[in-house]
Write a structure and sequence with these properties.
The protein has 459 residues and is of the alpha+beta class. It has two domains: 48-137; 145-161 and 196-457, Cytidine Deaminase, domain 2. The protein has helices spanning 10-21, 48-53, 95-106, 115-118, 126-137, 147-166, 234-245, 284-297, 318-332, 394-407, 426-434, 444-456, and strands at 60-68, 71-77, 83-85, 91-92, 120-121, 124-125, 229-233, 252-260, 265-273, 301-308, 342-347, 359-366, 378-381, 385-387, 419-421, 424-425. α10 (394-407) runs parallel beside α12. It is elongated. It starts with 9 loop residues before the first helix and ends with a helix. Residues 13-38 are annotated as: Disordered. This is MPN domain-containing protein.
Length: 459
């Protein structure tokens, strides 16, 4: 992955930040002709009328506000879900329409309004009421769908809670808002999945396989700047790659680090593997609490997540794209400023990889164009600087041994004495891949031999 060396223009970054807030621009989207709340209703299908009907908001005079570049705008929420601008009496059908109109009065070059993220109802962003609606009413329409959202949402809440306690002495007031989407990740099949180009997807189709893989675009290809720089520790890659090699099933984990608003640099310093089965809801709370405590004790923040495609390309599926967009929204909505959320996919056993090294793909999702709110988000490759650590830390070694113990009796444990290809065993494969993330101190190899011997004893 290339290293971005140029300094991004502040105005371009700010514009990107504002555009990214509009993760749900399709207020008038089709509700998928479903009956009852048990059906799948996407975030884009929720309108002000839905929030009014279900009592999350109430009509009223002056309850809606926009603050943009020093200017304040006030609106009335009408009984039919429309917005009346107090100053002129104009009626707008959606938050985006009103926000776009107001922002263009201040900045004629403004292309979108970021309505749900810009408009506040009684001081709180509308997007937060939308997320509350999802938490309150949405239930999965299939037995196995996106477990990572469950852990990520609750983990975000815990990390914010600990952060607020940590900084309470400075009287730093933080708005804590979270939701738990009670869903699980479906297990991939071993059949070959051919990636498709994003431009071939078009409008969302409920009949399309959510496991369809999508090729990544470049920021430059969609006329964007990457709005942040990323640096990832080699120990993060080593632990993540080790975790993904242990099982033929998908795994998930989280990324801890720091976000510097001044330099727009996201530094990923720790990986936190989830030692749980993807369909095990009962263990989720214990896992997220343990990870949160580890984040807190190390003074780190939740900055992203990773998961594996054991035998397939390390490219996002349609389901991964939606999960990443949800994670970006939750993390961005955790404070008053922009904070990126990095997604990483690791493909350890895909035979299309070059050599024994796993393919590791950092990615992000750009919302679809405002005029096409029912399209999928656009998955883009994130350019990353990989920083080589000097040592293999005791924290990483401890996590590796805990993973060995966890998967020791697992039915989907990789058989390391079997062959990955005619001249390479699974053990050779994992050793070769991990050597790509080796710390500068070569003493690590002796330490890892102990780990490998534990893997061999599990067969």
């Amino acid at each position: 992955v290339c290293v971005r060396e140029s300094v991004f223009l502040s105005e371009a970054s700010r514009e990107m930040e504002e555009d990214e807030e509009e993760l749900s621009g399709g207020e008038e989207a089709d509700l998928r002709s479903s009956s009852g709340r048990g059906s799948l209703l996407t975030r884009r299908g929720i309108t002000l009328r839905v929030l009014l009907k279900d009592g999350l908001v109430e009509p009223g005079d002056g309850v809606l506000t926009i603050h943009y570049l020093g200017k304040n705008f006030v609106g009335d929420l009408l009984n039919d879900g429309k917005i009346r601008w107090v100053e002129t009496g104009q009626i707008f059908n959606s938050p985006s329409a009103w926000a776009t109109h107001c922002k263009r009065l201040v900045n004629p070059a403004k292309k979108s309004g970021c309505g749900w993220a810009s408009v506040r109802y009684r001081g709180q962003k509308l997007v937060q009421y939308k997320t509350t609606w999802l938490h309150k009413y949405q239930t999965p329409n299939r037995d196995l769908v996106c477990f990572s959202s469950l852990l990520f949402s609750s983990l975000l809440f815990y990390s914010l809670l600990f952060s607020s306690l940590l900084f309470s002495s400075t009287k730093c007031k933080k708005q804590i808002f979270f939701t738990v989407t009670d869903v699980m990740v479906s297990r991939r099949t071993d059949r070959e999945r051919i990636p498709v180009r994003y431009c071939t997807l078009g409008t969302r189709d409920a009949a399309r396989d959510p496991h369809t893989l999508v090729e990544l675009s470049a920021f430059s290809a969609i006329n964007r700047f990457q709005p942040f720089n990323v640096a990832v520790s080699s120990n993060v890659l080593l632990l993540m790659d080790f975790h993904c090699h242990l099982t033929t099933s998908e795994v998930v984990g989280y990324l801890g680090g720091r976000w510097d608003t001044n330099t727009q640099l996201l530094t990923v310093l720790r990986a936190f593997p989830c030692r749980t089965r993807l369909a095990d809801r009962d263990s989720a709370s214990a896992v997220e609490e343990e990870i949160c405590q580890n984040l807190f004790l190390r003074g780190l923040s939740l900055v992203g997540w990773y998961h594996s495609h054991p035998r397939g390309p390390a490219l996002p599926s349609l389901q991964d794209i939606d999960s990443q967009m949800d994670h970006q929204l939750r993390l961005q909505g955790s404070n008053n400023g922009f904070q990126p959320c990095l997604g990483i996919i690791c493909g350890p056993y895909y035979h299309g990889n070059q050599g024994v090294a796993s393919t590791i793909t950092p990615f992000w999702v750009v919302p679809p164009p405002e005029q096409r709110p029912n399209d999928y988000g656009i998955p883009v490759a994130v350019e990353v600087t990989y920083v080589q650590d000097n040592f293999l830390t005791s924290d990483v070694l401890n996590e590796m041994m805990l993973l060995v113990d966890y998967y020791r009796s697992a039915p989907d444990l990789v058989q390391f004495n079997q062959y990955w290809c005619p001249d390479t065993t699974m053990m050779d494969k994992i050793k070769g891949s991990l050597s790509c993330h080796a710390p500068k101190d070569q003493a690590y190899s002796q330490i890892l031999e102990h780990v490998y011997s534990q893997l061999s004893s599990m067969q």
